[in-house]
């Protein structure tokens, strides 16, 4: 069984990358491409695709404006070079949010989430933290998160990495992303410091889910997570990581 895919992306190189990744995925078949927002709106309405890769910054209409004008919203994976739109993307029921440049492994993780989604995107509820299983100041053991109408406990050991997004925090775990109504700094104070490390102002990683690290030209460590996410550690975090190595 294959699902019909549309690419909405104004950058030729990004379109080519998505096209190649889709061609390498047997479950996907590409049925159309759009290079601007108005073309994307017309194409989605005409083809009714089962999955859309939607760039956020496009000419004429942004990806967010396209989605808001659709009478019926298909399953979406947003792509962008900027992470400040993550909250809005998930409020619009996106299945995932790919930050450019993304690897094929990260692309495949997003596709697998789309393939395993039990309900259309229009039926998905905004994911958010509803409660914390400890008192303020105590170390967290788990977080209660809400997703697709369910509330379930997420153990801290399952969290792969956390990203700051204004007053929210985006948590990646179980191959999915959840928006937490708590600033990253507040969460950091309640995480196990032997497992979690803040690698820069907007990101914390669970060291158990780090695939590898490699120094760049500035001697800062480029961190590759198991899900394909790449994060650049600042100088302080790079030094701490080197000090931890044997």
UniProtKB/TrEMBL annotation:
Gene3D superfamilies with a match to the protein in the record: 3.40.50.2300, LytTr DNA-binding domain (2.40.50.1020)
Keywords on record: DNA-binding, Phosphoprotein
Pfam families cross-referenced by the UniProt entry: LytTR (PF04397), Response_reg (PF00072)
Database matches in PROSITE patterns: HTH_LYTTR, RESPONSE_REGULATORY
Coiled coil feature spans: none
Record-annotated Response regulatory domain positions: 4-115
Protein name in UniProt: DNA-binding response regulator
Gene source species: Roseateles puraquae
């Amino acid at each position: 069984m294959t699902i019909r895919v549309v690419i909405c992306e104004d950058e030729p190189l990004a379109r080519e990358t998505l096209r190649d990744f889709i061609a390498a995925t047997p479950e996907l078949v590409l049925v159309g491409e759009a290079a601007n927002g108005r073309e994307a709106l017309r194409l989605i309405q005409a083809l009714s695709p089962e999955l859309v890769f939607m760039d956020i910054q496009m000419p004429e209409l942004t990806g967010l404006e396209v989605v808001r004008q659709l009478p019926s919203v298909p399953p979406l994976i947003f792509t962008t070079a900027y992470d400040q739109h993550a909250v809005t993307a998930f409020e619009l029921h996106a299945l995932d949010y790919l930050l450019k440049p993304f690897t094929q492994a990260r692309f495949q993780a997003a596709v697998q989430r789309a393939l395993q989604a039990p309900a259309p995107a229009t039926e998905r509820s905004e994911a958010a933290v509803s409660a914390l299983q400890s008192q303020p100041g105590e170390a967290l053991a788990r977080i209660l998160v809400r997703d697709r109408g369910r509330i379930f406990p997420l153990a801290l050991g399952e969290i792969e990495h956390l990203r700051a997004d204004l007053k929210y925090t985006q948590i990646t775990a179980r191959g999915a992303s959840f928006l937490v109504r708590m600033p990253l700094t507040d969460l950091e104070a309640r995480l196990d410091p032997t497992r979690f490390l803040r690698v820069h102002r907007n990101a914390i990683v669970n060291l158990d889910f780090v695939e590898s690290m490699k120094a760049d030209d500035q001697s800062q460590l480029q961190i590759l997570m198991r899900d394909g996410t790449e994060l650049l550690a600042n100088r302080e975090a790079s030094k701490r990581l080197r000090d931890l190595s044997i």
